Recover the amino acids of this structure.
């Protein structure tokens, strides 16, 4: 909601969507286009339930398989990128966060929830400025 202030629909990239259960947290406001991305495809039932929920709550949701260390999207594609409990996985978070920054539009926002304090420091200190990051609690 913070990233939405005064704007129309946003393009949102949800990295590390996993089984798509996070869609039910209503992170994505009405009217936005959300691309859920993960290395593996979710179960058909989970994907169907998430897509139905999104439609009922007024936003578009589609799933795409992809690697967060090498995002297939052009630079400046998304208004918002979100992830939750993803950057602590066994890969280089600096590479992932650099890719996130690349695909964000100028002035775009990165929202994340993470339980590893060092990840927060990597994101804020090395890649993003403080004003570009939204900590989801």
């Amino acid at each position: 909601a913070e990233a939405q202030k005064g704007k129309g629909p946003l393009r949102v990239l949800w990295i590390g969507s996993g089984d798509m259960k996070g869609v039910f947290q209503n992170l994505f406001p009405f009217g936005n286009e959300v691309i859920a991305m993960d290395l593996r495809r979710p179960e058909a039932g989970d994907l169907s339930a998430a897509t139905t929920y999104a439609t009922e709550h007024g936003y578009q949701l589609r799933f795409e398989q992809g690697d967060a260390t090498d995002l297939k999207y052009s630079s400046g594609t998304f208004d918002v990128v979100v992830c939750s409990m993803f950057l602590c996985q066994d890969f280089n978070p600096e590479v992932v966060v650099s890719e996130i920054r690349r695909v964000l539009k100028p002035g775009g926002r990165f929202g994340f929830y993470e339980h590893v304090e060092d990840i927060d420091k990597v994101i804020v200190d090395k890649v993003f400025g403080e004003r570009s990051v939204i900590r989801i609690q």
Notes: The longest strand covers residues 104-113. The two ends are 13 Å apart (CA to CA). Helices lie at 44-56, 93-103, 117-127. The CA atoms of residues 65 and 75 lie 18 Å apart.
